[in-house]
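[audit] Reproducing an earlier prediction to check determinism. Same input, same settings, fresh worker. If the tokens differ from the archived copy the diff job will pick it up downstream; this log only records the rerun itself.
[audit] input (337 residues):
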Amino acid sequence: MTLKENLLKALNGEKVEKVPVLSVTQTGVVELMDLVDAPWPESHTNAEKMADLAIAAHELAGLEAVRLPYCLTVLAEAMGCDINMGTKNRQPSVIGHPFDKPEKLEEFEMPDLANAGRIPAVIEAIKISREKVGPDVPIIAGMEGPITLASDIVSVKSFMKWSIKKPDDLEKSLVIATEASIIYANLMVDAGADVICIADPVASPDLMSPQDFKEKLMKHIVEFAEKVNAPVILHVCGNVTPIIEYMADCKCKGLSVEEKVTDIANAKQIASGKAIIIGNVSSPFVLLSGDEEKVTEASLNALNDGVDILAPGCGIAPMTPLDNIKAMVAARDKFYE
């Protein structure tokens, strides 16, 4: 099987030759930036450099997919948010929220997303990546999920307040964010992405209660998954054990979880027949700050626990040693010896 076939079979819950080893979250690390001359923040806006850095994680680190871009602000910026573009070792972040009051939300008009902000660069980078790696290497396009996008455009403070005091305004922000997310995701699919991964940290039980996830948020992720023309992976930060059941009902093919989800077998059982489990090698405590031996141990533990795709539990920290990423790939190979 090709790497793409192997990944798509894994996402469908089918038997695979080997558990894929890759990252569904960001892969840009400083060592790779230096090796291919594609540093942040330049590679957030330059399509060639964005593609080169993404391909480097596949060709030089051995990850079995090309994953781009490298932050959760591309769509937020296109929707009018102010962005701090970060540094070589710090990701961009949202610093301004255009619709933080209900009356501002009333004035919203959907922008021409295909031509907004950095979206054209991302689309071009996907096309370049496809041309360079050919048809058999999967491309995973990442983006902020609809819940997090809604919190970006109205601010987390307003989002939380509205979730309690102004449910109609909360719903309005989510409807807008979901529509925009679907448009952007399908633009990336049309450009050549095989899989879409949404990261929705604001949906975490750390911020929103499981009941709120079920009653207020979940339907928007379901709509996204149903209307995007490719398999969808859902990543939610933190210990998502309390919402695994609801995440599994979101119609996404895969659920990406952190190391804080300690009972992978239980998560697999809950999600069985609905979604596969992806993860859960700790990004900060193993890949970033551990050594190769620790990476090997954590990777083999995840495989023995039954992850369907071996991956970092969250975005790879920019200062992560390249050798540690390679060690995760080597551990997967060792698992099959």
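[audit] rerun output stored. Observation attached for the diff report: Residues 40 and 88 are 4 Å apart (CA to CA).
[audit] end
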